[in-house]
Specification:
By secondary structure, this protein is of the alpha/beta class. The protein has one domain: Rossmann fold. 40% of the residues lie in helices and 18% in strands. The chain has 6 helices and 8 strands; from the N terminus they run ββαββαββαβααβα. Strands 2, 4, 6 and 8 form a 4-stranded mixed β-sheet that branches. α3 crosses α6 and α4 packs antiparallel against α5. The longest helix is centred in the middle third of the chain and has 17 residues.
């Protein structure tokens, strides 16, 4: 719909943002659920196969500035910079959570992930909750390498490399501080 308003006199840019790491003052990281989930798994981390693309908070700002300065007409920009498998990303999470490098990450079969998704869907239905995702169907996406090359958008927009490892660390450390009640004055993604 937004692109329908684009013309020679009105530029419209849509940045298709992936997972974002880093912190924003006063905001609870969306990653808190994952840190809690990893903490609840005592001896190993169980996660599906697949992977994702990601950027840092700073790179999002660079991309927004680039879109304002460089875009003409209407364009969608697939916006990714770093591609990692879940196992690679979780290894970084483990490091900043203080876990030994020997902690195993066990890849669960797709059917187990789908079964858990079905349980979540059924629980939501019983409680008349409408989720944002059909968790059973989400399995196919979650277990795929959903990578975006930086050449597809970020490069054109002038996005520069950032320290993704450190930004993941910033996110994880803030999540831990929130979980441990060291930081309380944050706004949840839901606006709480």
């Amino acid at each position: 719909m937004a692109l329908s308003f684009a013309d020679d006199n009105f530029a419209v840019s849509i940045l298709e943002l992936p997972y974002i790491f880093g912190t924003q003052p006063g905001r609870k990281p969306v990653w808190t659920f994952l840190v809690e989930m990893i903490k609840a798994m005592k001896k190993a981390t169980f996660y599906p196969r697949g992977g994702t693309t990601m950027v840092t908070v700073h790179q999002v700002a660079e991309g927004l500035a680039g879109a304002l300065q460089k875009n003409n007409g209407g364009h969608l920009y697939p916006f990714g910079y770093y591609n990692m498998t879940w196992k690679e990303m979780l290894t970084i999470f483990h490091k900043y959570m203080g876990y030994s490098s020997k902690r195993k990450i066990i890849t669960i079969p797709d059917f187990l992930f789908r079964m858990k998704g079905s349980q979540i869907d059924h629980m939501r239905a019983r409680h008349n909750i409408e989720g944002g995702l059909n968790m059973r169907k989400f399995t196919q996406m979650q277990t795929t390498n959903l990578f975006i090359n930086k050449e597809e958008g970020a490069d054109f927009l002038g996005v520069k490399p950032d320290d993704i490892d450190a930004r993941i660390g910033d996110s994880v450390k803030l999540c831990l501080d929130i979980i441990d009640n060291k930081v309380n004055d944050v706004v949840d993604m839901k606006g709480e």
